[in-house]
Design brief:
The complex is a heterodimer of chains A (about 220) and B (about 270). With about 220 residues, chain A is mainly alpha-helical. Helix content of chain A is about 80%, strand content about 0%. In chain A, helix 1 (about 5-20) crosses helix 2 (about 35-70) and helix 5 (about 145-160) crosses helix 7. Chain B has helices at about 1-5, 10-25, 35-45, 65-85, 95-110, 125-135, 180-190, 200-210, 220-230, 235-269, and strands at about 55-60, 85-90, 120-125, 165-170, 195, 215-220. The chains are: A mainly alpha (about 220), B alpha/beta (about 270).
């Protein structure tokens, strides 16, 4: 039964979601359409499950890093920083949520967020610019015909996207927009439609019980 | 030629820092052309009726992508404020409410009334499912970020689902993002929707703009700068455009020099 019950739940929920946008009439004996069932019951449930998943992930993260600290593994002090930050923001934010009328508490939280977390996150993202610059010099080479096409397209899109591109040659933005609107769109749509068909096929396999990875099997 | 091929990466970093810092200290004033996808967003907001229309803004970004997205949010909120249009903020990213609060603090300092002119409903967990839940029942979030009952807020009066908003705009930096809105609200419910995305997501968003599922699109920091130009309120986007231009030029220069060195070293061999 450990396999059959999760499979039946998957099948029933999957069919309800599949039928919800395809049917409009009421379900016999239930007296409500499938769309009502998904909106009223399943969507809130998935939100609750997602909330639990976030909690589970936090506990798992805490367990792994507490283990790393207790065994003094290489870089254990980074784990101390992570556990401290996790606990600090968890306790502080919980207090803010429980005491919404306390404006000083909320302002203090915003202060930590805006003046510690924001600059650190922005700095991490900004560092990417240096890696891109270095990679563009070392790795972006016209080694083959395909690589050359990619390189030329990338250079044209970059110049066309920057305001200075139009100052150098007024056709750069025109070429950039064409590259985005035609070849890019064709490629992106192919990928999106291909992935959607692949997703549908995988979903069908799960619904029919051919794919059982989520049940813990092979 | 070998020296050019194996240039110290620190030299590359220094050149990039100079290229980015110089225009921030001494702006060059490079003119900016406005994309039609930006004009489309501006036209939608211009067409809204301040007496009846309420806009939904979904703050789905955090500090890491704020450099690209926050100037967009500032420009859109400035436009809504300028036109006297009420807005509701929601977030399907955990950091989103904090980003919205930065804008709300400025608006309150200027005399805007929280709860009447704008509100921050906070974060709703669940990703794409949460978007669907909110789309079919806008009161599914029981209280706003300050603990006020959502159903009692003046700005929420008459709003039951996402279709009751005159316009929905998402500041998107990843998943869940504009594609989830399109799947859960735009296609099944016919919600009027546009998005602002990080620069790297522009290529992915273009097919949805061209198909009309996105009624408008702000393209990264440049989109913010273009919007600031359209509403006549310069901000962080316009200020960073010269640096962006020189940064792009330097990277293109690196690609060309790197390839030049590669070909000549190959010829020698």
């Amino acid at each position: 039964m450990r396999r059959e019950i999760p499979f039946i739940i998957t099948l029933v929920v999957g069919l309800v979601f599949l039928l919800a946008p395809l049917t409009a009439g009421n379900i016999p004996l239930v007296g409500q359409p499938f769309s009502f069932i998904t909106a009223t019951y399943f969507s809130p449930w998935t939100t609750i499950v997602a909330a639990f998943a976030t909690g589970l992930a936090s506990v798992n993260l805490l367990r792994i890093h507490a283990n790393s600290i207790s065994r003094k593994r290489a870089g254990w002090y980074n784990s101390v920083a992570l556990v401290f930050a996790l606990a600090f923001f968890f306790v502080y934010r919980t207090a803010v949520e429980l005491l919404p009328a306390n404006k000083a508490l909320a302002a203090g939280y915003a202060n930590y967020f805006n003046n510690i977390l924001s600059p650190l996150s922005a700095a991490m993202f900004a560092v990417l610019a240096f890696y891109i610059a270095s990679a563009s010099y070392r790795a972006f080479r016209a080694r083959s015909l395909e690589a050359t096409v990619l390189l030329v397209a990338a250079v044209l899109v970059m110049i066309g996207a920057a305001p200075i591109g139009a100052e150098i040659w007024d056709q750069f933005p025109v070429i950039q927009r064409w590259l985005l609107a035609v070849p890019n769109m064709v490629g992106q749509r192919s990928i999106i439609i291909g992935a959607a068909i692949g997703g549908f096929a995988t979903s069908l396999r799960i619904l029919l019980g051919l794919e059982r990875g989520h049940l813990g099997g092979e | 030629m070998n020296k050019l091929l194996n240039v110290d990466r620190r030299i590359i970093y220094v050149i990039l820092v100079i290229a980015l810092a110089f225009p921030l200290i001494r702006p060059l004033g490079i003119p900016l052309l406005v994309n039609d996808s930006t004009t489309a967003v501006h036209a939608i907001i211009e067409g809204l009726d301040p007496a009846t229309d309420v806009v939904l803004l979904s703050f789905d970004y955090g500090p890491s992508s704020a450099g690209d997205i926050h100037p967009q949010a500032t420009a859109i909120v400035n436009h809504l404020t300028k036109r006297g249009i009420k807005w509701v903020g929601v977030a399907f990213w955990a950091d989103g409410p904090m980003m919205a609060d930065l804008l709300i603090a400025d608006l309150e300092a200027q005399g805007g009334k929280y709860g009447t002119d704008f509100v921050n409903l906070g974060f709703m967990t669940g990703g794409e499912n949460a978007i669907r839940s909110f789309a079919v029942d806008a009161l599914v979030i029981p209280t706003d970020i300050r603990g006020n009952k959502t159903a009692d807020l003046p700005v929420m009066q008459g709003i039951k689902d996402m279709n009751d908003f005159g316009f929905v705009f998402e500041f998107a930096s990843g998943t869940p993002g504009y594609e989830a809105f399109i799947r859960q609200a735009v296609d099944p419910m016919g919600v009027k929707f546009a998005a602002g995305v990080v620069t790297v997501s522009v290529t992915g968003a273009m097919p949805f703009y061209n198909s009309g599922q996105l009624k408008g699109l702000l393209q990264g920091l440049r989109g913010a700068a273009e919007y600031e130009l359209l509403i006549g309120i310069p901000g962080d986007g316009a200020a960073a455009m010269d640096a962006s231009s020189l940064g792009h030029l330097v990277i293109v220069g690196f690609i060309l020099v790197g390839n030049f060195a590669y070909f000549f070293s190959k010829k020698k061999k």
